[in-house]
Amino acid sequence: MNKIDIKDIFENMGNFADKQLVVAGWVKSCRGNGKFGFIDLTDGTCFKTIQIVFIAENLTNFNEIEKLNTGSSIICKGKLFLTPNNKQPFELQAEDIQIISATDSEYPLQKKKHSLEFLREIAYLRPRANLYNAIFRVRSKLAFILHEFFESKGFVHVHTPLLTSSDCEGGSELFRVTTQNIYDEEKKFDPKDELFGKKVYLSPTGQLEGETCAFAFGKIYTFGPSFRAENSNTTRHVNEFWHLEPEVCFMDLNELMILEEEMMKYIMTNILKRCPDEMKFFNEFVDNGLLDRLNNVINSEFGRITYTEAIEILQKNNDKFEYKVEWGSDIQTEHERYLSEVIFKKPVFVTDYPKEIKAFYMKQNEDGKTVRACDLLFPGIGEVTGGSERETDYDKMLSHMNKLGLKEEDYWWYLNLRKFGSVQHSGFGLGFERILMYITGVSNIRDVILFPRTPNNCEF
Q: Is 0.70 surpassed by the pTM of this model?
């Protein structure tokens, strides 16, 4: 079977005009009147469908074809005719249609509109729905564009482990991995009985391991799954997510923010160019202000404000917030959105946070109270990246770790990086699903990842 991709037909329709073709795929809709009918067919190679015209006198199995439900799979042989005056620029007039598998009335994705909650319950089928088809197509392209951006900048892509014996963030919300019988309540934990001889967890980040390669290659990035065991049911959190983390030597905080801004503008410019059909769909059916918002990001110079300045602004408007702010408190999503949507009306970096609310590896400022950190806030969503200069002073880092109760023996190799050729270096983390939400206009993170892992949800 010399099957032609629908994508190739759209891109080279002139080359296929008046020629016999074979296409194969799944029925999006089928309608007929007893004499002729129309099938909208998708094969997954592009967001668009091809229209197949089938006529009773040409097909011995016309009655079976006319009854096809959405989701049925077929192979169709026919001749392509250009129809420049119609909504679709061409149609395939069927000469033979082979039914591979016909769905019945139990198929959940019929013509009626379904709620997102229902579609999450059938996550194994939802990539076939238009919304998710567009989301996962853009997700694929976005990953490629990110790799393309860092490749063009001379970065080395490194693969960091998913199992770790330390916690980069200094918290306790980790998934423990064990080879022991967890149901034996009488048996106490003994590290000697573990496969690795110690407690091991699913990694929440690849940053620490990534830094080891940064000191070898100068510029690296990691891109892979991360795991955090937060019992959070917000629209912005999942327990398994994808994480992009660049790390660059001889780079200060200002240069890091320039890199982040350049990356954001690059990916959005290229998504608009390379996924025009999907982006048009999102703008029409998900968020009709989406394209304007993305173009605002592309054409704006990102704002910058220190944490202290941000707190002063927020305190003047404390009556508008559920969570009141004061210096030293963490900035919540409602505060992030107020700064980016109301005050700046564009993306904005917040810098120089109190060291007590940031990770141990961040570079301390001369004031002894703040660290050289930067969070990038976007209108409509809040924080999309978090980054910093990294602490290069061995003694300062060790002192801070001791205050946080982190064990030196768990981070001895990371501390040694501060002794063996340490240099100024910076990095950030980008939540892949977070930026995908922004680009698609989708409001719930569960809808931009194939099988979301959230509290009480790990069915598929």
A: yes
